[in-house]
Amino acid sequence: MKTESISQELKQLEKNLQTMIAAENPILYSAAEQLFNAGGKRIRPAIILMIAKLINKEHNISTEQKRLAEITEIIHTASLVHDDIVDNCDTRRGKGTVHTIFNNKIAVLAGDFLFAQSSWYLANLNNLKVVKTISKIITDFAEGEVQQGLKSFDNLISIQEYTEKSFYKTASLIACSCKATAMLNYDNNSKENDFYLYGKHLGLAFQIIDDILDITGSTESLGKPAGLDLKNGNLTAPLIFTLIEKKELPKIINREFQSQGDVLKAITLIKQTNSIQKAKDLAEEHIQLAIHILKTKYNNKDNRDLISVCYHVTDRIN
After folding, report:
1. Could you tell me the residue range of the domain that residue 93 belongs to?
2. pLDDT tens-digit profile of 123-152?
3. DSSP-assigned states of every residue in 110-130
4. What family does the entry list (predicted)?
């Protein structure tokens, strides 16, 4: 992913994040800092900064848009802290998760603290439309977790239900933050909708690729255990496509992968079909829709970085 055009802004973002999550309680601060120190590509704030440059006539990024990029990363980080507890994930990006280093209680409080900090900085943007748009993300996170919980180990789940859950859990954050970036440009509403759709399709593709990697990747490459989604009853696109072809798969799901080797057996069944390719094709559809928006409405050299983000998402499995 090309980030040269916003390299200085990303460096400043790293410094600002440390200041923004400062807390008087050393344990709370240490828990929140733990996840930031684990690294990450900062894809979400990078997208915001790129959009800000693209839609501004002078290619400047406003102070409010830079702050929005920081807020978005804090919200994303808060969601990861809570996700890791729900999913019983002991490692992330190859390092121990907050709840394994401290405990569940501290991790929940650290996540809540990050959500609270993001809300405070969001309110200080003094833009009610942006506040409403970004606040919806946190509601969507909860909706996504509930939907995922209700469909846990449910072998009747459809691709439509999977896509809806994926929107709430992943795509909403990218879609709403892209929309809010356009709002902060004080231009017209058409740009807001364009970048909402760009973020939505990019986010859905990102989640599908993540779910493919859970099947095809190694613990070392993922930075967390492979097959964790299956183990937790989170049935994703590759498995849903396989259910149509492999009649023994529902039996394994119904016993909730409790027998020894069940997760490996399910992964083997998935790989015996063309389900991974079908999932890739689904992700590619969303990527092409995102690129189409950029090429038809913002077709100039300044859209190259945002298009490179699209290709970066699918390149993760090549």
Report:
1. 4-315
2. 999 999 999 999 999 999 999 999 999 999
3. HHHHHHHHHHHHHHTT--HHH
4. Belongs to the FPP/GGPP synthase family.
